[in-house]
Every structure is written in C-alpha cells, then in structure tokens.
# Entry
Amino acid sequence: MEVEDKILPLTYDQRDIWLAAQINTKSSSAYKELIYLQFEGPLNVEFLNKSLQQVIQSHSSLRTIFHENGLYQTIKDPQESKLKIYDISLENENIREQLLKNWSKSFLEMELRPESDSIFIPSLIKISANNYILALAVHHIVADGYSVSLILKDLSIFYNINAKLLPPIYNIPMQFWEFAEKEADLTKKIKEEAISYWKNELKGPLPILEMPTDYMRPHVKSYAGEHYNFKIEKKLKNKLQEVGKNNNITLFTTLLAAFKILLSRYTGQNELIIGVPCSKRDSEEDKTCVGHCTALLPIRTIQHDQISVIEFLKLVRSQLYNAIDNKFINFNSLFHELGLIWDMSRSTPLIDVIFNMDSITDPLEFDNLKSNIISINTPSSDLKGLEIENETSKFDLFMNITGNANYLDVVIEFSTDLFSRNFIHS
# Structure
C-alpha cells in the first residue's frame, strides 16, 4: 500500500523525541545518529549513490517530513539526489589531514531538521585512490540503533546487486507507518493489563537516582556531553558469562545487575530505576522496518542488605522479563496518571541513566572492497584528522556495551553538565 504525501500522526515515542530535540541546538544534535563507513579498494561511486537512493526508496521513514507542530508527519515521494563527494586525494598529507578534519567537523555540527528534507544525509570523502569514508547522519526520530545496522545491511545488499549486475532479489520491508498501526492495535488490546502492571511496579515514592557529581545540576539540561570507552577483557567476560550460565541468566542481565550494584554503592541507594531500551520488533517482518521502534523501560529494583548476589541477579531477570512483556504502552500517559512532572534539568520524568547492550552484527560485504565501521571504540589509526565524537548526551549516563568473542567494548556517554572525564574514569 502506498501512502506517499499522506499525513500521518507521530507515535507517542516520536513525540517525546520531537519535544526533547526542540529544547536547544545541543538537544537537537543529541538525537542525531552518526555512522562512518571506511572503504578500501576501487569504490564505484555511481553504484554507491544508486544504492543509497534504493535504501531511501525502500524505507519511507527516511523520506519523511515532520510538521512544525510536532503532531504529524508526511511521507514524500522518492526524489533523485546526487551524493556529495569531497575529493582531497590530490593534496599533500598535511593538507589532507586538515581537510579531513574540516569535513568531519562540519558533518558533526550539521543540524538535521525533521521539518525539512534533511532527515537522512549522506556524505562521501575521497582520501586517496582507494580510500574513502562514507558518513551517514539520520535523525533518531526515524531510526533507532537497530535501524542503523539495517540501513548499512541494505546498503551492502544493493551495492552488491548493482556491482554484479544481478537481478533484484530484495524483499519489500515493513514500513514504519505499518509498524506504528500494528503497535497501536496491539497497545489497545493489552492496554489495561499493561497499565495495571506498571501502576503496580511504579507505586509508592519513586527513587530519584542521585549520583555524586562534579558540578551542580543546571536548571535546564544543556545536553552537552562526552564519551569514555574501555574494554572488559576476555577473562572477566568469561567469568561473568559463567556466573550467568550457572543460574540460567543472560550476559546482558548479569551486566545490568552488576551495573545496578555499582550505582548502588556510588549513590548509597538500595532502590534504583534504570532505563533499558527494548526493541518492539517481535516478528521477522518487524525486523525489516527502519524507524523508531524502541521502548525505554524503567527497571526498578530494591537491593536489600540480606539479599545475595545470585538472588539479586534472579530479581533483575524477573523484573526485566516482566517489563518486556508489558512494553507496549504509552509511558507519557502513564507518567501523567502517576502525577510525574518532567523536570527540565533531567532527561525524562523517571529515567536519568540508561544501560544497553548491542548484539553482534554480521560483517558488511561490499563487492571487491574492504569495509570497516569507524566508531568511538573502534577508531581508524590511519585516518589522522577524522573527528567523529558528537559531544552531546541525552541522559546523565548512558552505558552501551558491544560484545565479541574476545572482549566487551564499553562506551559511556555522560553529561558534562554533571561529570568530568576524570570522575567517569575513576
């Protein structure tokens, strides 16, 4: 079914993002997803441009314009556009380094405006004959973390089809508006059950996480932030996995429980609420959808002095699974019913700290090319001058873990309104 140029309402989650992104320039930048993909080899720029257009055509969320009132969105027809290419390959090394720095800094500072046609922007820089970087910026209101990996996967599929002159074999993905309609129907069916669960879960005085900070909390959150990254080495990772395995608990739940214990010791609070992003994509068809399809679940636990670590692990597992079972709910309406008011100095009425773990994605394959995703925790040593850190933070703390066979990569996004880098390091 085609819905181009049709007016559609924002989902409740999209409205939250829209409102938060309107606060100031930093808050707008905080909701910008950035991806950097390095290509080594004979990149066919024409095929790459065609592949990007095919990705945009396949996922209508990437050609959506949001109305200035923040209530409605319009899906536009696919438009032909040319990939911007910056060629610095003929410059000497020192000038190349400065030009790469200028290009990457300009891309970081670029503002994505959902009310215009700049919701998804690609940019390509040619560093040498066989060395390119593709930068992609997409607004969080139309793409969550899973969507980013899906965009890259589809880009590689289309590039290989174009490069090898293969017949199209790409299945039509679920569109975000279809997912939103499905979610709305499901939410109506289980609304009372979910509201009952969360009202019981969030009854009584709610704990406010009071971390020791370097600076006083400002009256209005600035969204300024930095990133700090480190690794959990294989030996410790294996021990954590073993503890979880012996108690039928996943590594994610084990790490979440450990994070809660750590925060409890820092704050002196035995009752905590931590936010956990949870995908709403339950079916295989859902998993083809690019869009904001994530719920932020408030996981509340009490760590009594008498409770053992294993008992606490099992408590966290139980709370987490119950929350996931009740993820289809409009939390803003729930917060309103509970009398929770959004304090402008904080991220949400209830959640200031986030814990997330990304699953391992399959390596990307582009015909006759070596490709590498460049990130905060996997920088490229041969790209001097490249700046990729978006100096923003949506929350007080956001701990994100990515696993592989040998170690765990940990990135902490933290608010510089509250914390210094030295504090996070310690």
